[in-house]
Amino acid sequence: MNRLHKWLWPLVLLAMTMTMTMTMAMARAGAGGPAVAENRLADTASDYLRDHADNPVDWYPWTEEALALAREQDKPIFVSVGYSTCYWCHVAKRELYQDPEIAAAMNAGFINIKVDREQRPDLDRVLMAATRALGEGGGWPNNVFLTPQLEPFFAGSYFPPEPLPGRESFPQILERLSEQWQTNREPLLERATRTAEALREGADASLAPERIDPAGWQARAIETLAGQFDPLVGGFAPAGQSSRFPQSPRLALLISALDDDEQAAMAEPMLRQTLAAMSIGALFDHVGGGFHRYTVDPEWAIPHFEKMLVDNAQLVGLYARAGQRLGDDWFDDVAARSVDYLERRLWADEGGYFTAENAELDGIEGKSYVFTSEAIRAVLGEDAEAFLDWHQLVALPESRIDHQLPDGGAVNLAVGRALDAFEQGELAESIGGFDTDYAALLEARQARGLPQRDRKRVAEFNALAGLGMLAAAQPLDRGDWHARAQAVGDWLWTRLWDADAQRLNRQAYQGEVSGEAFLADHAAAGRLMLALYGTSHDIRWLFRAQRLAATIERDYLDESGRLHERPPQAGGGLPLSPPLVGDDASPSGHSQAVVFLLDLGAVLEDSARQERAVRALAGFAAEVDAAPADWGFLVGALARPSRAEAVTREAVRLVEAADAGGGPGETRDHVEVEARLIEGGAAILVRLAIDDGFHLNANPASEDFLVPTRITALDGEIGPIDYPPGKPFRAQFARSAIDVYEGALELRVPVTGERPTRLRLELQACNDEVCLAPDEVEVAVDRGGQ
């Protein structure tokens, strides 16, 4: 488990209910009653949720209303997380949630909640962590059963409507869990408690500047990728994994490594082979341009057909940069055809890019994309044979659940012939002659109907698309792409920026903006604004970048300098950060924020801002150091000489400051504690002496993610302690003050039974720059002759 710290699991989830601006007006029909013709999802700002609005399931979006109802009715909660282009999510809707009998069982036994993971990536990651803690592999839809106190006790992905060998059906699962909850829930509660305990186990919260090592991280990451590389077909996957994903952050790392002669010797062959294999196989849509989400086979031949903006946004720039660095026109052509796809299918008339395009048409996955040789001959006529000589139609595998297959195969280039041409540097020229054939086949394909698109326009994904267009525009000398990147930047600012609140909204949907933006939204948008300033020197972009940086520093940095996915002050101050997962399908918010603040500091010659960036990096440096290959975007970006120099300089300063402060920075090093019996043994006087410049969190703590000063007895019995009020303290970049104890503090601990001999104090010491890890200090009680 990465970083859920020592916060209570129920509060982690409950915090995520407090800012549900994603959800629009909801009908107020009672849960558990008769099925309704249109449930509470009908007016939400999500195509995925709306797609379930006519289910007989009495769905709720994730809101406090739903959670409170579960507590009131003492029912478990069934949470299903997915997204609009998730094929198996659509299958589940048809096979499970449209079934009146299954819906009746869900309504009778559970409070049922639907979540769009692209609206709530924080909640998605917390629930995915729960699924994995329960021993499941993960994937979407992600279905988690929770107690009314929000502790997970059962999870899985696609549940079949009928039993399969070794697998229960969904109706069987519902019946078993509902009956067990009503008649013998203790095993479920015990499992929920164990799972919650596992999720509480977090990493040490202290800063780790001494582990920051940009050059070493890149070298170790490249070595790791070399060990995971498939030398036959390219790409990176553990042994035994059949599916293949583009893994854009890792490709970005390989491109960055080309600047180092020693690392380039390892990185370049992996980069060249992977990019070639992805674009020769059917991960790339040869007829219509753009990339599918992933392939179900290791040869890149059979795609899972949905197309995501987040993938194509990154791959456009990666292929263009690789074409420039490696001198290959084929990569340039792939980038150009991917831009054509984005413009044709995902650009919205009112501005911004839609989020994704579905894999299925008429309930059949791949129907929009496959061809038979007969269909190709019917469209191309006498040109068909030349086309078929260069292209291979790969049949889709039979589904293990016997779903209908489309008529035809996935269009690949003929692998052997294409690879030979690629190695000779002739692939672009050879395939260029098929442009008119592709256009004719695309027209025929579109006549079948077009897959549905997810009409959300998300800040983070659009900013990545703008960055991708910029990265491609310069090497390919495309002023129109540069203009499109500027249009994305203007759309983000004029449509999603809230000037009053000085923050972004997460999305636009059907003319309305909504949703709390996350760190990744602000950091990606900031990177785009700064990049646009670098290419145009128009001061408006620099102004916008500065405003976004100020928002990050105000809302997403806590008093110790650590970054959070959502503002620590949000939701009444309850904890909010999901576990860190690194740079997975796209750069993480943490990675992008560090790079953005570093770069803005360099442009403005603002060393204080660069110091804040490195302090933020120190807050998760231990995670990066443990697995640098999982942080490909960050590691590659920090290894650039200008950034590496600044990072190393500021990290050394942080280490020196910690050393000058005396010791490793444990809380107990800055607090002296003594305890003695008073009042004839009726109470214990606890004295604390706190080092100058440090403070302890008051009790109660001002925010639930802070550890309050707390005293418990290791033996004997004590009564409630009247903790004194704290003194207001406000860190430089905190939005509000918190209550703290400073200097000398005396606490009276009443004795209500047998006199304790030892007390335990839970403490967390902070100064105006850093919060140390929470600590537990034991102290003997001086009996003083009593």
Cα-atom radius of gyration: 28 Å
Helical content stands at 40-55%
Number of strands: 28
Overall average residue pLDDT: 89
Regarding CATH, which class of the largest domain?
A: Mainly Alpha
Q: What is the CATH architecture annotation of the largest domain? A: Alpha/alpha barrel
Ranges with pLDDT <50 over ≥5 residues?
Answer: 1-8, 18-37, 571-576
| Broad structural category | alpha+beta
What is the distance, rounded to the nearest whole angstrom, between the alpha carbons of the first and last residues?
48 Å
Beta-strand proportion: 5-15%
Protein name: DUF255 domain-containing protein
InterPro entries: 6-hairpin_glycosidase_sf, 6hp_glycosidase-like_sf, DsbDN, DsbDN_sf, Ssp411, Ssp411-like_TRX, Thioredoxin-like_sf
Pfam families: DsbD_N, Thioredox_DsbH
Organism: Guyparkeria halophila
Could you describe the 3D structure shown?
The protein has 786 residues and is α+β, with helices and mostly antiparallel strands. The chain is 43% helix and 15% strand. The strands form eight sheets. Strands 22-26-28-19-20-25 form a six-stranded mixed beta sheet, with no helix packed on it. Strands 1-3-2-4-5 form a five-stranded mixed beta sheet, with helices on both faces. Strands 15, 16, 17 and 18 form a four-stranded antiparallel beta sheet that branches. A hairpin with a 4-residue loop joins strand 19 (671-678) and strand 20. The longest helix is centred in the middle third of the chain and has 20 residues, at 261-280. Residues 560-587 are annotated as: Disordered.
